[in-house]
Amino acid sequence: MSADGFTKMSIYGMNMDLFSSSPIVILKVEDENRYLPIWIGQPEARSILMKLQNQEFVRPLTHDLALNLVNELGASMERITVTALKDQTFFATISLDIDGKTVEVDSRPSDAIALAIRSGPRSSPRTRSFRRPASSSRRPWRRPPRTRWWTSSRTG
């Protein structure tokens, strides 16, 4: 954990929850064997996978369009941050640099990750240290779970 209370993470891969058939993006703590699974929606999972697998399209998809808007307005993505876990839902922010001023934008972690992988290596995921309620069935793993499918490439 860094001095500012955040832990730097990278995308380790994607997984499918075998019980709910929900996609999971798995973040890995840099230089440690700790993982943070985040259950996400199908459209966001497709968007993340397409970029991780270097699939290109003639016309911009939704996350490509959002990043194009950010860039055309003179801003740049600095980082994404998973900020909280409330009622089994993760919250995130996207930090944008606009003329030397940092602006924090509320986001779902899945959308923030989809944008970050499009904006390049400068935008790495970070997470605050927080505890998961003891009653939660979705606990961070020491190792990633069994997979139904994985991406063919890892980013970091």
Give an account of the 3D structure:
The protein is an alpha+beta fold and 156 residues long. The protein has one domain (6-128): Bifunctional nuclease domain. The protein has three helices and seven strands; from the N terminus they run βββααβββαβ. The protein has helices at residues 42-52, 62-72, 109-119, and strands at 6-16, 23-29, 35-39, 75-86, 89-98, 101-107, 125-128. A seven-stranded mixed beta sheet has the order 3-2-1-7-4-5-6. β4 and β5 form a beta hairpin. α1 (42-52) packs parallel to α3 and α2 (62-72) crosses α3. The chain starts with 5 loop residues before the first strand and ends in a 28-residue tail after the last strand. 26% of the residues are buried. Mean pLDDT is 79; it is low at 129-156.
